[in-house]
Amino acid sequence: MKEQKSIRKISLKTKFSTASMILAMVLCVIIIIISYFSFRDAMFARYEQNITSLVDTAATLVPLEKVNQYYESKQTDADYDLLVKEFQIIQEQNNLEYLYAYVPTKEGLDVFAQGTKPGDTGNFVLGDVLGTDYYPQKDIDAANELFTNPDAAKIYITNESKFGYLISAFDVLRDAQGNPVLVVGADMSMQDINSTLSKYIIFVSAIAALIFIIFISIYLLFLNKSIINPLQVIVDNATDFVNNNIDENMGELVALDINVKTGDEIEMLADAFNKMTSDIIRYINELTSVTSERERIETELRIATLIQDGMLPHNFDFPDRNEFTIYASMRAAKNVGGDFYDFFFVDEDNFCIVIGDVSDKGVPAALFMAMTKATVKDLVLRHLPVDEAMTEANISLCKNNEQGMFVTLFIAIVNVKTGVFQWCDAGHDPVIIWKKNGAVEMLTGKKGFVCAGLETAKYAMNESKIEKGDIIYLYTDGIPEANNPEQEFYGENRLTTLIGSTEEHDIKSLCSSILDDVDKFTATAPQFDDITMLGFKLEE
Fold first, then answer.
1. pLDDT digits (tens, 9 = 90+) for 35-59
2. Where are the beta strands (DSSP E) in 180-274?
3. Where in this chain does the record put each HAMP domain (predicted)?
């Protein structure tokens, strides 16, 4: 009883008013936060819509049929001068930082036209190449990705570069065949967005404060003893939940259990608070668990991707050897894949090329791939014939293979002096020989069962020869089995036809053309399997 008298030294109305004000302030803060993010998102959307519209407008002004002519001749005409003038007008009238058109290359961005006037900072002319001395390498890589990948993002917001807080939009212009010709882009400053958001917060806060004062004033006029006590209970419990609502034994948040029996909206409010806090706690727990697990998985996958990429050789230059050239690439369907390639000298004259495709994808396939690659290289470097190396690799991979995984594998050892090569095929896709005269042939010979599929499997050695200028092209089934949205396969016929029609007898150009053609064929269909290629050319 003494504790109750001590509690009631301050009037219950005053206590209730104070608690109600706190609750109202919390609601106001929530409203302000929600309004802030809604307004911010609306501003971002407006910026994106505005700059996208400007880029589209600028793109329609480009005389697409003359782009190659301008680049080749480095000579301009009235149409080009008009385009630059219109770019300048669009940039100036719409407060753009930059408006430009370029062709991305590996060395940088090859300027076509821009809206920056002569004499101003950042003015460049037709044919200027802006390399890493002007743009970071990652921006150049992103520009090339935008140019070659139709699915690449075309809206960027950056606030870390020397150019400041910008929103950038891009449009890739294509010719009648759908090939990329030119990129039109624009940068718009977003420095004003912070001050605008600050003014908006002040404005919303003032309105919220005014509503808060009016609400409290009117509400206090109608207070009476029939609602003060139950509301006091609700406010006290809500305050406890916000400030300190942790079970001392379990160390966890505890949902409210407000027991108010008024038979009206106040009782419904108490029940709503109980449910709301229970839902919040459940959501927090689920979100914490899911977020933690997702971050752990993403971190592990990023590390696995780097590790797998580091395992594949990327140095295709052999400065002391001019007998051959080699190039390879691998694009995983997931963060990590089961495809791999390898190449290395066995001795002074013999060069080994290997390609494989594990039966699964993802981390398990990547682990099995790593084991296969290491096993094959070790056996070949022991100077075992390719058939014996394949047999020993099969036996080794069959052991402890409880998951029943297998790998298709092709091993060839090429004499770089004579062009004679010994090879062994364990269920891999047919190898293509691209002759110097442009003819395309399938390598024929004895094939064996897939590796890690049957421990007693035996493999036969084949011997073939290529002439100087010929190319050995290896690939995995991610190419012929690529699907388009109509569920049609890319197929070996399309692959061999493309190779035969390629004019430049170069490995890197061939691999790039095939990858571009596969992407064009699959269109919006997702990549379902790893895509790996390796080309070996016996130079003349």
1. 777 877 887 788 888 888 988 998 8
2. 180-189
3. 225-285
